[in-house]
Amino acid sequence: MASITDLLLLGKGSDLSSERGVSCTGELPASSDPHLVERAKKARAALGDRAMILGHHYQRDEVIDFADITGDSFKLAQAAADNQTAENIIFCGVHFMAESADILTSENQAVILPDLAAGCSMADMAAANQVDQAWKVFEKLGIASKTIPVTYMNSSAAIKSFTGENGGTICTSSNAERAMKWAFEKGEKVFFLPDQHLGRNTAVLKLGLKLSDCVIWNPWKSNGGLSDAELISAKVILWRGHCSVHGRFSVENIEQVRQRITDVKVIVHPECQYEVVSKADVVGSTEMIIKTVTQSPAGSSWAVGTELNLVKRLAANNPDKAVVFLDKDVCYCSTMNRIDLPHLLWAMESLVKGRVVNQIRVEPKTANFARIALDRMLGLP
C-alpha cells in the first residue's frame, strides 16, 4: 500500500494536471488508492464528536462524502461558530474560509486546513499593504471620512481587519445588497473589495446606480490608475479583483447554450461579469443557485455559471432536469481542488494520533477588528 506521503504527492499531481487543463473535460483523476475511503471512514469514526468536518460546495465529491455540513463560506463559518464542543474544525475549503472560522471560534478549538496551498486567487488580489496605500490616497483627497469599506467574504483576515477598523462591514454574495445599502446610510461612498464584479453588479443592478458611478482602483498603477477628480466624484470605488472561475463566463457562452438547448434557463453567480449577469435569467449566490434548480419543475433545463464540481453535483441530484455547465472549456477551481481525500485523510489520521496539523491561526489584533466587521454583517437588518 502506498504511504500517506506518496498519496499526498499523487494528490498534488492531480491538482497540477487540473491547472494545466488535463481535467477540463469534466472528469477528475481517479482515486489514487482504493483503500483510502475505508481508512477515512475508520479515522472519522475514531474522532467522533471531537471533530467537525466542513465542506464547501466546490469541493470534490470524495471530500463532500465526509462533510458533516456542506455550504458556502459564510454558512460554514457560522457552523463553526455555533459548534462549541468540537475540539477540531477540519475546514475543507480555502485559506480565507479557515481564517474566518478561526476568528469566529473559541481559543479552545483548532481550525485545520488539510492543504495549506488551498488559497483563493481573488483573495490574493488584495494585499493589506496595497489596501492601506489606497486608503492613504483617500485620506489625502479628504474622501476617506466619507467612504465606507465593504469587503466580500472572499478576502484575507487582514483585509477584513482593515474593514472593521475603518467602520466597514463584510458581505456575502447573498447579502451584498443589504451591506451596500447599509454603507450608503453611513457614508457617501463605498470602497468595495476585492471582487469588482460583485460590487458593480450590486451597485448597478440592485441599487440602481449608473456604471459611470463606479470606478476601478488598480493597485498596480499610481493613484489606482484614476485621476483625483474621478475618485472624488465616484460613488463606488471597486478593487481590481475577480474570481478566476466566474470571471471567465462570457456572453458568447450564453448565446451558444441558448442555441443548443431549447427553453434553457441561464443561472449565474454574481461574481460573473456585468455583461454576463445582465443577460442571465437568474442571478444568485451558491445557496440560491442550488435552491432554484432543486425547486424548479421536472423537465426544466438549466445552464449554470458557477464552479464545475457544484454543477456536476446539481445534475446528479436532479436527474429529472437537464443541468449543464455554462462553459464546457473552464476547469475546476484548481485551488479549491487542492483539498482531496489524501489530504483530508492525513489530517484526520494525524488527529487520531493526537497531532494537530495545518492549524490556522489569526493573530489577536487582526482577529479583533475582523470580528468587528463580521459582527456588523451579522447585525445587518
List the helices and strands and how they pair.
Elements (H helix, E strand, L loop, with lengths): L3 H16 L16 H12 L3 E6 L4 H4 L4 E3 L1 H10 L5 E5 L2 H10 L5 E3 L8 H4 L3 H14 L5 E6 L4 H9 L3 E3 L4 H11 L2 E5 L2 H11 L7 E4 L10 H6 L2 E4 L11 H10 L4 E4 L5 H6 L2 E2 L2 H10 L5 E5 L2 H10 L4 E4 L15 H12 L11 H15 L3
Parallel strand pairs: 1-2, 1-3, 3-4, 5-6, 5-7, 7-9, 8-9, 10-11, 10-12, 12-13
Helix pairs in contact: 1-16, 2-16, 4-5, 5-17, 8-17
Protein traits:
Rossmann fold; four-stranded parallel sheet; 381 residues; five-stranded parallel sheet; disordered N terminus; 3 domains; 13 strands; single chain; alpha/beta
Which structural class matches the secondary elements? alpha/beta
User: What's the CATH superfamily of the largest domain, by name?
Assistant: NadA-like
Q: Name the average pLDDT.
A: 89
Top-tier CATH class of the largest domain: Alpha Beta
CATH fold name of the largest domain = Rossmann fold
What does it look like?
The protein has 17 helices and 13 strands. It has 381 residues and is α/β, with parallel strands linked by helices. Helix 1 packs antiparallel against helix 16. It has helices spanning 4-19, 36-47, 61-64, 73-82, 95-104, 121-124, 128-141, 157-165, 176-186, 196-206, 228-233, 251-260, 274-279, 286-295, 308-317, 341-352, 364-378, and strands at 51-56, 69-71, 88-92, 110-112, 147-152, 169-171, 189-193, 214-217, 236-239, 265-268, 282-283, 301-305, 322-325.
